[in-house]
Task: structure prediction
Amino acid sequence: MGTVFSFDVRGGEPVAVRAALEEVVAGLHRADEVFSTYRENSQVSRLARGELSVGECAPEVAEVLELGAEAERVSEGWFSTSYEGRLDPTGIVKGWAAERAARRLAAAAGVTGVSVNGGGDVQLFGAPGPQRPWRVGVSDPLRPGGLAAVISAAGTDRLAVATSGTAERGAHIVDPRTGRSAVTDLVAVTVVGPSLTWVDCWATAAFAMGSREALGWLEGLPDVEALLITAGDEVRCTGGLAARLG
Result:
């Protein structure tokens, strides 16, 4: 998927944890083989060329495409699983794969806490220790090496944090309505919620919208909070974000 994944697993029986890690790493490689748009022989590439039907693909393809269609519906088209008229579900695959990996690790015998980080987007389950919540630093896009905020998972056993922006990869987010790079007043959007699959989609869609439209839209999503940073160094937050800072 063109990025690095890391795993932090707390507790658990060593043999069970090791087996779960081997399984999820294999699963991530498998997801890349199935969904990569850079591999000519991937199922998604063949599906886009009309060489396969969805029914002939691995079951995960239909699952991801259904999730993508829902994300497009909820975002009123600001999130899309197509690029330049061609099938491209990469905007949802990474979050979906990381969340699936975290769930599998959390289910291993005796595990009390899991953090899976896929290219800076994080899915958390449980806790790292007694009375210690997971905490995720949000990079400051305008001050390299600095933090814009720290998100705490205190009070919940499941939390995800995803950021979309230009600081790390430049202008890579596409406005699905124009097919060109999204040009807005934003440099970063961080979205917090229970599911990395969804918060990753919402961060991408919100960035494409721009701060004014995105903030109102994000406020209307259930169980979601967000931090938006503009190129003018203005910080805008949803109303409940303060409860997640720490």
Notes: The helical segments are 14-35, 43-48, 59-74, 90-106, 196-209, 211-219. The radius of gyration is 18 Å. The chain has a mean pLDDT of 93. Residues 14-35 form the longest helix (22 residues).
